[in-house]
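We were asked to recover a plausible sequence for a given structure. The inputs and outputs are reproduced exactly as logged, with field labels preserved.

PROBLEM: sequence recovery
POSITIONS: 443
GIVEN STRUCTURE:
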């Protein structure tokens, strides 16, 4: 039977500990299933998912899959929160270490440039105890490097557990995390920094990261189908004494492990530079991402230095951006629900990834509108509400473009979605790291 032939609810359940600890788990029904092939080296049995397979990630209940989606989204939110929460207590950090604004902004850029979740948690805790500004910047870079895992892996997990017609809603939920995180970071960081000092901003992030790390380790099992089927084939081969392989393993027979690892490491770069769609969408997304992080360096200058706001009140200026993001997510939900009705897409084979893109056209118009509006209204002589309101169309447009691109890339490169998102994240991070460094020269 072909993979995912049936979407009916499964009445068979794999033991929880087996899900977490044994990727090759099988029951008697799986062992006795009639697989194509004859079990010889020349014609091995080809392992695939069985009817209502209890180990198929797409056959788990919606409640379980939404719980997994929520966890990876929370992990992504935490990393995104850590990028911008750092900027809120900027005056305290610079005063503590007698650092210049450029050196302080390196802490923001280094974190984004880095982008193992456990190491992210430990290094963020180390930031709270940093004795020098140099140590703080270095630990921020390393925390960003290890914190990149949910940004790239989460998209692959969602592709593993959601069929096409349901994945759009899950991707919107996940995509909202790296958008809300940066916009709420200065608000949360501002109030914590004002009340308890800048070190507790990093302490709070370390605690939140620890909760995410522990929860994901205990709750989310392996979801990558080729890995699961390969382990299953090995297990049944030992039990039955015949040759069983997964379909992917059949296609890759003869490849050395070194070659496979090299291919996995090179694939994101190949997709980035040899796939024009990936390259163009990634460049556009990187420019927008850099502009977003330029805001995080510019807002303390515009509202705290020029208008004299305190760091806790200054963080509230980002609520305009958060409002635009929230509005954009509501619109994206509505559009996605309408565009993925069963009457239009009755099967995975009929699915067209381009159905994700039309709403990005609206976002492409809203983004420059918000940028021009903010540029011409942030002077202290004008009421603060005018410039804060300018963030709404920018945040709204950013969400529509970001979600459209993320959904499209995952749908178009399903099995390689993690590699595509890794390539996208690499270029985004470079732009996001460099844009804040020249902010003070233009504000």
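RECOVERED SEQUENCE:
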């Amino acid at each position: 039977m072909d993979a995912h032939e049936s979407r009916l609810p499964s009445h068979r359940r794999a033991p929880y500990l087996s899900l977490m600890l044994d990727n090759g788990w099988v029951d008697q029904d799986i062992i006795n299933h009639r697989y194509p092939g004859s079990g010889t080296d020349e014609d091995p049995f080809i392992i695939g998912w069985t009817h209502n397979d209890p180990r198929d990630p797409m056959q788990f209940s919606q409640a379980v899959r939404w719980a997994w989606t929520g966890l990876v989204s929370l992990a992504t939110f935490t990393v995104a929160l850590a990028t911008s929460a750092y900027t809120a207590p900027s005056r305290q950090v610079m005063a503590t270490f007698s650092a210049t604004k450029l050196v302080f902004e390196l802490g923001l850029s280094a974190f984004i440039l880095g982008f193992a979740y456990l190491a992210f948690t430990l290094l963020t805790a180390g930031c709270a105890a940093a004795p020098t500004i140099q140590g703080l910047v270095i630990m921020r870079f390393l925390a960003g490097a290890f914190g990149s895992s949910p940004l790239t892996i989460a998209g692959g997990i969602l592709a593993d557990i959601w069929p096409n017609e349901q994945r759009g809603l899950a991707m919107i939920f996940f995509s909202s995390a790296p958008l809300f995180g940066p916009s709420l970071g200065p608000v949360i960081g501002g109030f914590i920094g004002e009340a308890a000092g800048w070190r507790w901003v990093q302490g709070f992030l370390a605690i939140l990261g620890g909760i995410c790390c522990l929860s994901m380790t205990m709750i989310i099992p392996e979801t990558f189908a080729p890995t699961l089927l390969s382990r299953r084939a090995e297990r049944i081969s030992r039990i039955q004494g015949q040759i069983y392989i997964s379909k992917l393993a059949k296609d890759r027979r003869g490849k050395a492990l070194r070659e496979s690892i090299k291919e996995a490491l090179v694939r994101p770069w190949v997709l980035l530079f040899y796939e024009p769609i990936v390259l163009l969408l990634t460049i556009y997304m990187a420019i927008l991402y850099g502009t977003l992080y330029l805001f995080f360096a510019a807002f303390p200058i515009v509202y705290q230095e020029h208008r004299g706001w305190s760091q806790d009140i200054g963080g509230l200026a980002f609520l305009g951006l958060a409002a635009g993001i929230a509005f954009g997510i509501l619109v994206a939900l509505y559009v996605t629900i309408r565009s993925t009705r069963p009457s239009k897409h009755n099967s995975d084979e009929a699915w067209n990834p381009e159905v994700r893109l039309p709403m990005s056209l609206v976002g492409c118009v809203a983004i420059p509108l918000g940028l021009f509006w903010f540029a011409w209204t942030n002077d202290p002589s004008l009421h603060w509400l005018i410039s804060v309101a300018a963030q709404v169309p920018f945040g709204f447009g950013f969400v529509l473009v970001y979600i459209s691109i993320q959904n499209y890339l995952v749908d178009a490169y399903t099995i390689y979605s993690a590699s595509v998102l890794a390539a996208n994240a690499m270029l985004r991070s470079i732009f996001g790291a460099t844009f804040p460094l020249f902010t003070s020269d233009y504000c």
